[in-house]
Amino acid sequence: MNILVCLKQTFDTEEKVMIQEGQICEEGVKFIINPYDEYAVEEAMKLSEQFGGEITVVTVGPVRAESALRTALAMGADKAIIVNDETLFGDEYTISKVLAAVARQIPYDIIIAGYMSVDSGAVQGGPRLAEELGIAHISTVTKLDIEGNQLKAERDVEGDVEVIYASLPILITAQQGLNEPRYPSLMGIMKAKKKPLERLNADDLGLSAEEVRAKTEIIDQFAAPKKPVGRILEGGVEKQVIELVALLRK
Amino acid sequence: MNRNARILNKLYYAMRLEGGCMSEKKIHYLAIGDSLTVGVGAPPGFGFVNQYQRLLEESLGKEVYLVNLGENGITSGELLQLLIDDADICALVSKADIITLSVGGNDLLKAAKPFMDDGEIRYLRLSCKRFLEHFTQIISIINQSKNNSPHKFMIQVVDIYNPFPQIRLSGFWVKKFNKHIRSFEGRSLLVTDVYDAFLGREVEFLSSDHIHPNEEGYKVIAEQIHLLGQKLE
Amino acid sequence: MSSKILVLAEAREGKLRNVSYEVLAAARRVANGGSVIAAVFGSQGEQYVSQLAHYGADQVYVVDQSELERYTPDAYTQAFIQLFEAVKPDVVFMAHTAVGRDLAPRAAARLGYGLVSDCTDVVMEEGQILFTRPIYAGKAFQKKRVIDGIVFATIRANNIALGEADTARTAEKIELKVELKDLRTTVKELVCKTSGGVDLSEAKIVVAGGRGVKSADGFKPLEQLAKALGGAVGASRGACDAGYCDYSLQIGQTGKVITPDLYIACGISGAIQHVAGMSNSKVIVAINKDPEAPIFQIADYGIVGDLFEVVPLLTEEFRKVGGSS
Questions:
Q1: Domain ranges for chain B
Q2: Which of A189, A234, C77, C159 sits at a 20 to 30 Å CA gap from C110?
Q3: B3-9+24-232: CATH homologous superfamily?
């Protein structure tokens, strides 16, 4: 089974985030694989262990994103591709077109991506890519079973669970709970060194910057307003309760 | 030159030297870690790594062949990524008879800043959690490197001292990190008692930047590590 | 420059979801003298026409076909495209719900447009529509606009203020038949985990429990308080992992991201992942035994104490003074 995994390098949004003049400060920031994409890589590993086949991981991003790819290779992916051509960077519209161009160059039976990236939180990647390629998609998958060409997926829908039947080829997006991503093992690290990491640009993909130009633009970025420090109420419990209710009613 | 290129340079140098002399009498010592491993705060040759190397040569009567992969400012996450990115480092790990590891100080320093500026504790908590995740993976990779190795090996981990005893709660957090480190103690991993050794004697052992040790402080660390090895015999 | 705005409304369990009214309100803000057209898929669309009119729709398209009862990407995308071609709007708004998150990007891709998703504010500035949306787990915001093609956006629940319903307003009902074929995925089963009562993702008041609740029974006092306030019950991941409640109550980066007016955190320590799910709440109250719990750092008001003592007292006090603010 040929599996294509789309991943994104983001920074750890749980850490302190500094914004200066509308841009996030990358100084001293820790970059990680988008946590939802880790589920995608792990699921690909599980499928490959079950069915055999090759896993290709792809990302669109600057050179530093290669360490995200190397980590995926160390987890067990077979090949990595990075599109680090800046003329192909843009918004969700752009990225999906670029990823589609990559996907058309390699054989795939299933495409797996994280359901959202924790930095932008746009939640557009998966469905857009599926549409560009003309294949079906199932998002926020928490359980996946494949038999032959048939697929049964459970997905999380705002708390409810839907059981979906479909067939390959398909794109699925991973939600938390799908699996527990493995740590890269030493074997994985040693093998990863010999695995191919391809760097592609617009010419390699037969794309022009013009045709993938972004449709939206960011005008400004700013930190969330700092909340004034809260108050811990004092006095006996009953007194605090009465005070709290009075404050809230205002 | 970026970090990876610097490390690779050290590696190639190390391997070329290595190739020249395959003496049985040599002990391979690999030092991994942050600025403490580099020896920032003391004159060149007087960080704990070199001082420890000399102590070893003295007590063992053998030549100690050293590869120092210390990297200033590196955090546990970055050290882990280094191990993942470069299989050559793992190869060095598997060859080493002795490994010293100093990491975590920078994780703490980074997370302490929002705490000291705004009283924000959550980054310290997060940092602690992340440190445990990274440290676990680092030790796991080192252990795996040793699985197929015929000779015995030892990982000696330098625990973290508190450079800011005057800051409320700083000891609490440093000890939390150290607790995580100590949870890995076992047959082939030992942890120093640098925190206790430095307690109350920061003026003596810290350099003028008040963060890194001075030559005397590094001597204490080297002796602490040496003490660990002696515990084994 | 007036616009024609298409709003896809959503119904659940026989009622229009509150967020649909909010999306209509957002549409009215930028209509600028133009028209707001609502649409609803699935059966019984008829019954929603008047409500949609009251909240601002000038026309309501009803697309009533059995394949649209339950959302599937193919059926909804095909129906939406045909709707789009019938209406020919300049602007499309949807709610950022499970349906909106899934349908909007696919439909935008099919039509060749951009999409600004998960917006918490929509304003008109110098003839342009500007969107504000959270990024980095709510730690920051960005302002975006569309620079090419039609304006397509999804709007997060509980962030757009609703005006009063104008019961005098009426809207023209238009029935639309769409052709649906080659549906590649089927929903075989639905396991409903969310119980009735107030929908957590849209609740204005949420009472949430963490590990401090200690047991499934421990949620009972929280349920009482939520009831007294007309709110919903939520939980931190810790409480769900410990088995005190179902994961459908989970609030956090993975789980639900909510923006209630009042969020009462009981026995929740305040781990970042949880905070990411509720940090934009307007007022946060924390009740915890541990004075050093991080939740106090983001709370507007805090009570250090045993939730089993404090929560019932709160419930009683709220009942006494008669309802929520």
A1: 3-9+24-232
A2: C159
A3: SGNH hydrolase (3.40.50.1110)
Question: pLDDT by residue (tens digit) across B3-45?
Answer: 656 666 665 555 544 443 344 568 899 999 999 999 999 999 9
The residue behind tokens 């560009």 is A132
Q: Is A28 on the interface with B (CB under 8 A)?
A: yes
DSSP assigned state of A22: T
Chain A residues with CB under 8 Å of B137 CB are 183-184
Q: Tokens for A24? A: 């996030």
Could you read off the pLDDT of C55-76 as tens digits, one per residue?
A: 999 999 999 999 999 999 999 9
- DSSP label at C251? B
- What single-letter DSSP state applies at residue B37? H
Average pLDDT over chain B, rounded to an integer: 87
pLDDT tens digits, A196-205: 999 999 999 9
> With respect to CATH, is domain C4-175 assigned 3.40.50.620?
yes
CA dihedral A173, A178, A184, A190 (to 10 degrees): -60
* Partner-chain contact B144 A15, CB within 8 Å: no
* d(CA B80, nearest CA chain C) in Å: 23
Q: Which residue has the higher pLDDT, C247 or B160?
A: B160
Q: Which fold has domain C200-321?
A: Rossmann fold (3.40.50)
The residue-averaged pLDDT of B132-157 equals 86
Let me know: does A97 contact A157? Beta carbons within 8 Å: no
- pTM for this model (two decimals): 0.87
Closest Cα in chain B, distance from residue C279 (Å): 14
pLDDT band at C203 (very low <50, low <70, confident <90, very high): confident
Query: Do the chains contact at C297 and B121, CB–CB below 8 Å?
Result: yes
Cα–Cα–Cα angle for C218, C223, C229, nearest 5°?
A: 145
Domains and their CATH numbers in chain A = 3-223 (3.40.50.620)
ipTM above 0.90, yes or no: yes
Is A190–B90 a contact, with Cβ atoms under 8 angstroms apart? yes
**β-strand A9-11 against A31-33: which pairing, if any?**
antiparallel
Determine, for residues B121 and C294 on separate chains, whether the beta-carbon distance falls below 8 Å.
yes
Q: What DSSP element (H or E) covers A152? A: strand A150-157
What residues in C contact A127, CB-CB < 8 Å?
73, 102-103, 105-106, 109
The answer to whether the CB of A110 falls within 8 A of the CB of A32 is no
Per-residue model confidence as pLDDT tens digits over A87-118: 999 999 999 999 999 999 999 999 999 999 98
How close B56 comes to chain C (CA, Å)? Answer: 45
**What's chain B's length in residues?**
233
Q: Which of C272, C274, C275, C290 to mutate to test the interface with B (most CBs of B within 10 A)?
A: C272
pLDDT higher than 80, residue A234: no
Beta carbons of C297 and B125 less than 8 Å apart: no
